Amino acid sequence: MTRPRKPDPLAEAVRKRERRAAQAREEGQHSPWENLAVIGSLAWQVLVPTLLGVFIGRWLDRVTGHPVLFSALGIVVGVALGFFMACCQPWRRK
Predict the structure, then answer these.
(1) Which one is predicted more confidently, 1 or 14?
(2) 87 and 46 in contact (C-beta within 8 Å)?
(3) Which of 27, 32, 37, 50 has the most CB atoms within 10 Å of its CB?
């Protein structure tokens, strides 16, 4: 009895790269300004929740009397939320 062959990972990678290259040829290249705009919007999507987490954490630290507990928690939650907003938005996928 023969086993079914596993797909070759190298052949899969080559097919995937060819598909991406064909898609890039169809869509055309983006201008440097468009690329800069995308990078800037991603930076803001990470920066704003992080800063909000810091400010809310600092305020909670002053209210509760903790030295840095809520500030650190605010940074972690803000960064996590920012990265989720930047890369895991199912409604932004085409």
Answers:
(1) 14
(2) no
(3) 50
pLDDT tens track for 12-65: 889 999 998 888 788 777 778 888 888 888 888 899 999 999 999 999 999 999
List the one residue out of 82, 85, 73, 84 whose CA is nearest residue 50: 82
Answer positive or negative: Cα dihedral of 17, 20, 26, 28: negative
How far does Cα 85 stand from its chain's mean position?
7
The Cα–Cα gap between 60 and 66 comes to: 8
**DSSP calls for 59-90:** HHHHHHT-SSHHHHHHHHHHHHHHHHHHH--G
- Residue 93 gets which letter from DSSP? -
Q: What is the separation, in whole angstroms, between the first and last Cα of the chain? A: 44
By the 8 A CB rule, do 48 and 82 touch? yes
